[in-house]
Amino acid sequence: MGLRLKFNIVLALVFAAGMGVSAWVSHQLLQNNAKQEVLNNAGLMMEAALAVRGYTVQQVKPLIESQLEAKFLPQSVPAYAASETFNSLRKTYPDFVYKEALLNPTNPRNKAVEWENDIVNNFRNTGATSEITGERDTPVGRMLYIARPIQIKDAACLACHSVPAAAPASMIKLYGDANGFGWKHQEIVGAQVVSVPMTLPIKNANKAFITFMGSLAAIFVVTFIVLNIMLSVMIIRPIARMSASADRISQGDFNVPEFGKSKDEIGTLGTSFNRMRRSLQKALKLIEK
């Protein structure tokens, strides 16, 4: 087995071990980073929805208050405004789903389902919790979600949700007086929930993983080629020349050029070889006499 082959086998084994460790570590990190990135984007969208809610309550609703007695306008409802704004965002981010899940909503489309009820009750029971993230299984695959509480911090919201008598007649006519009432100031009545298919962060992570591993493999190939060239030029060729010269000298042919001087180990070996050659040549001349 030649020196080059031994060197390449060791190099390949070291690279394979390095690739294996790098693949495992980078895969875990990229999966976590991709997941966190998706959650951060979901959080930003949720903040945008919350800003729309505040804008609707503080600036839109007061302007159309007088019209609500004659005709109820859903655009005056913060939850409706936030949901519609998010639906517009879904044209750019189709994988993100937003819902204002309420325990006792006026609009039936905002009614919390079982797993959303658990989140809202968790917020109600642990009032200090400001955010919950997690994963859940669905018929279409595993979903990643982020949820934040909806708390009645603006007393103006209670105008439509305290008692039916205080609500606009047009709203009662549209939705009835059975749901969406009894809310209290500072009460947590629901949760903002953004859901994303786990396939999205996994897809992003896998894409980054393939790019990283491909780059690492390309670096190895370049390194492998450069090291083999260096091995050939700096070690194998000089040693092969010394071996050929030693064969000729052993057969009595001293007409071989001496090796040049250099400061590395191969140069030191060449100097020793030159000295040995001269000593052997002198010894043979003495014997011949």
Any key phrases for this structure?
289 residues, alpha+beta, Helicase, Ruva Protein, domain 3, Beta-Lactamase, 2 domains, four-stranded antiparallel sheet, 6 helices, 4 strands, 12% strand, rod-shaped
Provide structural commentary:
The structure is a single chain. This protein has 2 domains: 3-11 and 207-288, Orthogonal Bundle (Helicase, Ruva Protein, domain 3), CATH 1.10.8; 40-198, Beta-Lactamase. Helices cover 58% and strands 12% of the residues. The radius of gyration is 39 Å and the shape is rod-shaped. By secondary structure, it is of the alpha+beta class. A hairpin with a 2-residue loop joins β2 and β3 (141-151). The mean pLDDT is 81. The protein has a 4-stranded antiparallel β-sheet with strand order 1-4-3-2. The chain contains 6 helices and 4 strands; from the N terminus they run ααβαββαβαα. α1 (3-64) runs antiparallel to α5 and α5 runs parallel beside α6.
